[in-house]
UniProtKB/TrEMBL annotation:
Gene3D superfamilies: VC0802-like. This is Uncharacterized protein. InterPro entries: A9CJY8-like_N, ACT-like_dom_sf, CASTOR_ACT_dom, CASTOR_mTORC1, UCP008459. It holds the Pfam family ACT_7. Residues 13-56 form the A9CJY8-like N-terminal domain. Residues 60-122 form the CASTOR ACT domain.
Length: 129
């Protein structure tokens, strides 16, 4: 990854990170939109989706924006998330990361997205808005 610019794209919309109990079925609203992520563990059912689809009754952390690392990324690449999270940590920006088979998605609170994009553009990233 050294000296190679990675492209990142800011996805449209604001997202919510929701917590449901493990015995609940995945609700239909979770599947609406271009991006959603559903993870179930023995402790919780976690859903990331457009916040406009989420009821006020749902336990949810709102106002996240998503930066997509343009892929596909080869499994042999090392340190992509580490580098991004390190840059954000040095600038007091909290992240929530989601990885898929082909790429990584970095969730950043809306109030920090502008600063995050500036930090990334100053480093080895090209953020497309």
């Amino acid at each position: 990854m050294k000296n190679k610019k990675l492209n990142m794209k800011l996805l449209d919309g604001k997202y919510g990170v929701c917590r449901l109990s493990t015995d609940e079925a995945v609700p239909s609203w979770a599947f609406k939109g271009e991006f959603f992520s559903i993870t179930k563990t023995e402790d919780e059912l976690s859903i990331v989706c457009l916040e406009e689809n989420i009821s006020e009754k749902i336990k949810c952390e709102r106002n996240w924006r998503i930066l997509k690392v343009e892929g596909p990324l080869d499994f042999s690449l090392v340190g992509i998330l580490s580098k991004i999270s390190g840059l954000m940590a040095k600038n007091d920006i909290s992240i929530f990361a989601i990885s898929t088979y082909e790429t990584d998605y970095i969730l950043i609170k809306d109030e920090n997205i502008k600063k995050a994009i500036e930090v990334l553009n100053e480093d080895y990233y090209n953020v497309i808005i």
